[in-house]
Specification:
This protein is mainly α. Helix content is 55%, strand content 8%. The chain contains 6 helices and 4 strands; from the N terminus they run ββααααββαα. A hairpin with a 7-residue loop joins strand 3 and strand 4. The longest helix is centred in the last third of the chain and has 22 residues, at 140-161. The radius of gyration is 19 Å and the shape is globular.
Length: 168
């Protein structure tokens, strides 16, 4: 029987994969580290209480103004009820605006409010800063290679799932 690889705990109490961890374990650990840092900006009141999924929803409507909840569900593959709660929360906080579709009143088109755009802009700036910090020590060629390799992994996983690899 092969012994299970055990994660190690660093001096700050954070979990890190064992040195012989698989590539998928490393990807998971990196993503967990990003998510744990991504929304910990106490100096930015605009981001207070914003969850990673709410950030993703704002990002979707920033890229697709006028899209519907159905469009978001198709894009993300998330549960419609979960998305309805997220959208309701973002609307109540004044970050998303809704307007009935002129051709189909049952459809509600969503877009970022000015406040939502400001939050999105702040979030993007913070994400760029975190990315720079996470990739510190990698030269431009290494960064490009890492991006290409991760896109290949993403395409392979999308093909296994039958998804479009072009939509993150």
């Amino acid at each position: 029987m092969i012994p299970k690889k055990v994660d190690t705990v660093n001096r700050k109490g954070k979990t890190a994969p064992a040195p012989e961890a698989s590539v998928l374990d490393l990807i998971h650990t990196v993503m967990h580290g990003v998510r744990s840092l991504q929304y910990q900006w106490p100096d930015e009141p605009a981001l207070a209480g914003l969850t990673p999924m709410e950030g993703k929803v704002l990002g979707f409507f920033a890229r697709h103004p006028g899209a519907t909840q159905r469009d978001l569900a198709q894009h993300s593959g998330r549960d419609k009820a979960q998305l309805a709660r997220l959208i309701k929360s973002l609307r109540e906080r004044g970050l998303l605006l809704a307007q009935e579709d002129g051709s189909d009143r049952r459809q509600v088109c969503l877009r970022l409010s000015d406040a939502g755009q400001a939050v999105r802009d702040t979030l993007q700036q913070r994400e760029r800063t975190l990315e720079q910090q996470a990739l510190a020590g990698l030269n431009p060629a290494q960064r490009q290679q890492l991006g290409e390799l991760l896109r290949s992994v993403q395409a392979n996983l999308a093909a296994l799932a039958g998804d479009d690899p072009a939509s993150p």
